[in-house]
Amino acid sequence: MSGNEYLTPKSQDFNEWYNSLVLKAELADYGPVRGTMIVRPYGWALWENIQQALDKRFKATGHQNAAFPMFIPVSFLEKEAKHVAGFAPELAIVTHGGGEELAEPLAVRPTSETIIGHAYAKWIQSYRDLPMLLNQWNSVVRWEMRTKLFLRTLEFYWQEGHTAHATAEEALEETHRMLGVYTDFAVNEAAIPVIPGEKSENERFAGAEVTLTIEAMMGDGRALQSGTSHFMGQNFAQAFDIKYQDTNNDWQFCWTTSWGLSTRFVGAIIMTHGDDAGLIMPPRLAPIQCVIVPIYKNDGEKSDVIAAAESMHQELTDLGIRAQIDRREQLSPGFKFNDWELKGVPMRIEIGPRDVQNKALVLARRDQRGREGKQPISRDQLAVVAPELLRQIQASLLQKASDFQDANTFAVADYAEFKEAVGKGFARAWWAGSSDDEKRLQEETKATLRCIPLEQPGAAGVCFYTGKRAEKIAIFGRSY
Amino acid sequence: MSGNEYLTPKSQDFNEWYNSLVLKAELADYGPVRGTMIVRPYGWALWENIQQALDKRFKATGHQNAAFPMFIPVSFLEKEAKHVAGFAPELAIVTHGGGEELAEPLAVRPTSETIIGHAYAKWIQSYRDLPMLLNQWNSVVRWEMRTKLFLRTLEFYWQEGHTAHATAEEALEETHRMLGVYTDFAVNEAAIPVIPGEKSENERFAGAEVTLTIEAMMGDGRALQSGTSHFMGQNFAQAFDIKYQDTNNDWQFCWTTSWGLSTRFVGAIIMTHGDDAGLIMPPRLAPIQCVIVPIYKNDGEKSDVIAAAESMHQELTDLGIRAQIDRREQLSPGFKFNDWELKGVPMRIEIGPRDVQNKALVLARRDQRGREGKQPISRDQLAVVAPELLRQIQASLLQKASDFQDANTFAVADYAEFKEAVGKGFARAWWAGSSDDEKRLQEETKATLRCIPLEQPGAAGVCFYTGKRAEKIAIFGRSY
């Protein structure tokens, strides 16, 4: 099966394939300031669908949205020692406002623990105010040097949840609950199989006591951290004096969490499902689920075919399917097919004058290109077949990605096997190394400890690197 | 009817009433940096409903959402002379990033004409690319010295639409179309009667050739500009080289527009509908449309009453009504009534053990407090009465606000009448003054020309200020 002539094949140069696909499918473009990104309408529509799928889950688990200012006094960041150490090198600093130099410089938020902590200290007074469960959708700024559209940009879009609790247990439970929400979202909406697990100390969020993550394998075998959930202990509560009076009227520090998922997830969708011909959008998140391409040679044929297309469009819309008719003139059907394949629309309807006469149409699925993915159906079957086909494509994408992840995850027993494994995909291994071992491993192999999966085989084994007794399996891989 | 004991009465001090209401109803709070605002969950839920009502209309008129970076090179702003003159004094400037001083300082966007103009110049090549109809939801920064929650803050939330067209006619049509969208939204969703009109040259957006506005009258008779739509002519197209090849392959400059509505509109809702007891949310935008207050004295009563409340909650939710049960313990029903009145929930259900026995309940409407606003109904009527009552409240709020605006708008024939009118509300008068006349008028009376209404009586009259022949009626008022 041929690819798209305008696109570098995925197998030839994955990095170049990704960069050109993002631009050519009009998902995003470069902003004028180095490292910034413009998210174009097609990319933003995908992000809006991601937002809705997540927001629904956040609200169902008792969270409310709010909005905190983007400007944070630099002194706020300095209140938590590890936090400022982690973020200070990446800050954008406002020094002038309204034509005057500011008395205190302001950071453009790299994340909002500090400014939200300041507000929580004011709003939380009693155990009755707990838990406090807020989220915000916004953009944040981290001055990155090596940028890549969606994966790492100077400004990026995300949601950040911030919660405060009366006990460590409740806060830890929340940290796990939100990782569960991310896992459910990734698997059931984006068709991306992810490994939920815990980060090692080296990879923890600056200021966290526990960082949980979902790790996904991209089409080149590399790892992508796709969402994180942090247990902060009382670090931020102590730094910002977030306290409550318990039922005995004693003052206690709160326990806090934060969790975020960003536009980087758009990159995960591209790199998990895409192929040589372009994107493949998982149907549940696809901005356009079905495109209808009318095929005609003259005005007489056109009016019949367009009328048939409009009737199908109406029927699909009534079923809740996001459908669109490609009405562009002066473009051949073949060009249009390629174009919508590049854009990854999961299902295509081809309708010509003969189909209209025969009360029929052709359904083509994006994930099986060419003849095998096409099925002629009668017009009156559309309402039954179309939703079912979208479900099949969704399930099939997940299955394919799971199979790929399984096929490229290797249980390794020694360092030689490890090096070979991380050249292809994930290494799965017993691990009892120290932080220094982990750093050395990274220097030697460019692979990092992606996570210690929450699901463990139990028992114990021998660490492939140190030879020590190990109680946990870890996943290693190279990232971007 | 008494007010709320925690709230300064509206009639006593409108400004203080507003400020305390915003804080006490937990719509917003002050951010740590002077002039910034935290939008709390209840305020943000209102803004989300505003967003949805507008976004639906934007998409129905062919617009798509996108996202452009917040950082704009200062040199971009300088490309359009009037634009930079208008915005330069209000800019926040980033001078350092990633620990280093930047070669070129960056402005945090005060509005996005320039950065979007830069992108349009790249994306638009042919008449086939037109019209380009984009919108973005974001926050912008203007360094304001006199701030007031929602009305004027250093950072505020809004949407900004930016479009490019092949002809002046199409761009002007778009400018009017979007003002129509704002008018429809204000009247039919927010129950705020607005006057659509054109701004005078003095009040135009920096860089625009025409600025249209919707002006609303607040509860103290003052004017609030509630949404604006600008025709830019070719000013930005020339500054940013936004050109297309027409059907003859000749290069032509585009014609552009922009239009925005901000969180200031939350202030409009508060100040149009609120009363001494607090907010009154228009039902169509209310975060909570119906609150159910269970009333009981002991555990036996409680279980019956809560079961009845839950059944009502389910029925209302199934009808698409945003309902909530107030399950808080240790608070009296009277306290809860006051609290929900403060928060402006349009409809309240009171349900006690006797009501459960009688298969009945009491419906209370927020816009008619006390006995007259309460009606006992039988339980099986709820599904019919509740949606109808919400519609009545919506219509009644619009009627009340229209009556208030009419009663406080005065046709004036001379300067004495003008001065009296703008002390109470709007002056409506024939106007033929110059820009200098307008400035002098403002110095003398603190009133500004709010707009020249699109709807005009026709014919001509005598300008109340200059005595000249005037062809247009204008609306004047004091603002905040």
Would you kindly provide a written description of the structure presented here, covering whatever features stand out?
Two copies of one chain form a homodimer. In chain A, helix 13 (415-424) links the parallel strand 20 and strand 21. The model of chain A has no long low-confidence stretch (mean pLDDT 96). Chain A contains 14 helices and 25 strands. Chain A has helices at residues 14-24, 41-60, 74-77, 81-87, 113-123, 168-188, 235-240, 264-273, 299-318, 333-342, 353-357, 382-407, 415-424, 435-445; strands at residues 28-30, 37-39, 64-65, 71-73, 92-97, 100-108, 132-141, 155-165, 194-198, 210-217, 223-231, 243-245, 251-253, 255-262, 290-294, 323-325, 347-351, 360-365, 374-378, 409-411, 426-431, 448-453, 461-462, 469-470, 472-477. In chain A, helix 2 crosses helix 6 (168-188). The longest helix of chain A is centred in the last third of the chain and has 26 residues, at 382-407. The first copy, chain A, has an eleven-stranded mixed beta sheet with strand order 3-7-8-14-11-10-9-22-25-21-20, sandwiched between helices. The first copy, chain A, has a five-stranded mixed beta sheet with strand order 16-15-17-18-19, sandwiched between helices. The first copy, chain A, has a three-stranded antiparallel beta sheet with strand order 4-6-5. Helices cover 36% and strands 28% of the residues of chain A. Chain A folds into three domains: 14-273, Bira Bifunctional Protein, Domain 2 (BirA Bifunctional Protein, domain 2, 2-Layer Sandwich); 290-392, 3-Layer(aba) Sandwich (Rossmann fold), CATH 3.40.50.800; 409-477, 2-Layer Sandwich (Translation Initiation Factor IF3). Chain A is α+β, with helices and mostly antiparallel strands and 480 residues long. At the A-B interface, strand 2, helix 2, strand 3, strand 4 and strand 5 of A face strand 2, helix 2, strand 3, strand 4 and strand 5 of B. Strand 5 (92-97) of chain A pairs antiparallel with strand 5 of chain B.
